[in-house]
Input
Amino acid sequence: MENHRKSYIKRARTHGFLVRQRTAKGRKIHSRKRRVGRCVNVRKTFS
Output
């Protein structure tokens, strides 16, 4: 559907931050993403 206009409001209401915070599993998703973001593997030296 290339001519379909995506509704950003609908997307936010179904997948947004506050929706995730409402359920225990959604909060787990956030904590997992935060944990992954904290330990990004970046090389210490560039050779």
About this structure: The two ends are 46 Å apart (CA to CA). The chain has a mean pLDDT of 86.
